[in-house]
Amino acid sequence: RKTEDEVRKKLKKIGFEDDIIDRVIMHLTKLEYINDFDYVDAYIRQYMRLLNYSIYEIKNKLLQKGIKKDIIEEKSIEIFNNYAYANNVKKIEIIKE
């Protein structure tokens, strides 16, 4: 998967004009080939689970990929709230055993 910014930069590098790039981005977004919210969600979960990165490292990497800060914040809060909830449920189940 690619972020909107990565696709935009690639098309700009090839030589497409901004208005064409905007239309391509809009079309790819409509087709759900580009969805920065889903990208951030998958990225955070993967890097937390597989590579044990801190939230600070993950946020920096996402910013470097051109993801908007508000998207990163929204998704990270959502994911970490769910993660904390799941861990608390798991702890309660262990205590009950």
Helix/sheet category: mainly alpha
Approximately how much beta-strand content do the residues carry?
A: under 5%
Radius of gyration: 17 Å
Question: Helix share of residues?
Answer: over 70%
- Low-pLDDT parts are 88-93
Order of helices and strands: HHHHH
Count of helical regions? 5
How many beta-strand segments? 0
Task: Write a structural description.
With 97 residues, the protein is mainly α. 78% of the residues lie in helices and 0% in strands. The chain has helices at residues 4-14, 18-30, 36-49, 55-64, 69-96. Helix 1 packs antiparallel against helix 2. The longest helix has 28 residues, at 69-96.
Task: List key phrases describing it.
single chain; 97 residues; 78% helix
Question: Would you spell out the secondary-structure blueprint of this structure?
Answer:
Layout: H1 4-14, H2 18-30, H3 36-49, H4 55-64, H5 69-96
Task: Provide a compact summary of the structure.
The protein is mainly alpha-helical.
